Automatic annotation (TrEMBL):
This is Putative oxidoreductase. It comes from the Bacteria. SUPFAM superfamilies: GroES-like, NAD(P)-binding Rossmann-fold domains. Its cofactor is Zn(2+).
Length: 311
């Protein structure tokens, strides 16, 4: 494989960069082609798009997606690849893994005709969930965030935006994607009686407190985790991980997903980009890493990027 682009999955990759993966979950949180062990050094990432340079004849020259770390060339089994169709630009295809996460959450929640739904957290994952939901026959859909600048993203996606204080209550489903204690607490306020909160945030080694002593018990609310490592239970016996990836890829024919590609840098700049993301000096939904053409090879010491070099 020769890489064309890779995407930085900001939430998870910064947890890894900051060595915040709890030891008790380290094995479960390994990326498919990760090298090294948490906390570090570790080669991490899972949003890679490239071209097959060596392999079976029917794969030669194909543009493909792979759940592989940031690296300019690598060798993987054909079974690890998902073809990028003609209708999906290679740069946009880096979003496949995140769309897959959103697909899994929708399978987990099972939204129904006429449901009232809120998505809390208008970042990459929350925005993806809202993007997929906008075509559902819902009674109401709101994308909720503290940052008023996210209103522009919601407008681009064609989704109603609300500040947490103004979000409408009595939701059948709330997708929580803000990775914040306040966001989860707000989810409990917005969901209706016997409603479902789909928790998509990973808090890593952070401890959070939520008010389960108020009306959580009396209103019979449910909080359910959704994590992309396994196909959602509702589809686990009907769909494979490969099926889910192919579905996610097919959805990326919609150009609205380009709204999530908010910046780009060369592969050689990756360590500095990660530092800037971690330090809050670079705002991004999905920052794209671009790889040099074959006639412009990188120096040997830049051929892979690890959290050790990024520190």
């Amino acid at each position: 494989m020769r890489s064309l682009y890779s995407g930085i999955s900001k939430g998870t990759e910064l947890v890894v960069h900051q060595a915040a993966v709890p030891p008790c979950i380290a094995e479960k949180m390994r990326a498919p082609h990760q090298e090294g062990s948490f906390p570090s050094p570790v080669k991490f990432g899972y949003l890679s798009v490239g071209v097959v340079e060596q392999g079976p004849d029917d794969w030669m020259g194909q543009t493909v997606f792979c759940l592989h770390p940031h690296q300019d060339r690598y060798v993987v089994p054909v079974s690890a690849l998902t073809r990028v169709p003609d209708g999906v630009p290679p740069r946009r295809a880096v979003l496949t893994g995140t769309v897959e996460t959103a697909v899994n959450a929708l399978w987990e929640a099972g939204p129904r005709l006429g449901d009232r739904v809120a998505v809390i957290g208008a970042g990459l994952v929350g925005g993806m969930v809202a993007t997929l939901l906008r075509t559902f026959p819902l009674a109401r859909l709101q994308l909720v965030d503290l940052d008023p600048d996210r209103h522009d993203l919601a407008d681009t996606l064609g989704v109603d935006f609300a500040h947490p204080d103004d979000a409408l209550p009595d939701c059948d489903i709330v997708f929580h994607c803000s990775a914040s204690e306040g966001g989860l607490e707000r989810s409990l306020k917005l969901v209706g009686d016997e409603g479902d909160i789909i928790e998509m945030s990973w808090y890593a080694d952070r401890k959070i407190t939520i008010p389960l002593g108020e009306d959580f018990h009396a209103r019979r609310l449910s909080i359910r985790a959704s994590q992309v490592g396994a196909v959602a239970r509702a589809r686990r016996h009907r769909r494979t991980n490969a099926d889910r990836l192919e579905l996610a890829m097919s959805l990326l024919t919609d150009p609205v997903f380009d709204a999530f590609l908010t910046g780009a840098s060369a592969f050689a700049e990756l360590p500095g980009v990660v530092q800037d993301l971690a330090g809050g000096r670079l705002e991004a939904l999905c920052h794209v890493i671009e790889y040099p053409a074959t006639d412009d090879p990188l120096p040997e010491d830049h051929r892979t990027a690890t959290t050790e070099t990024a520190r």
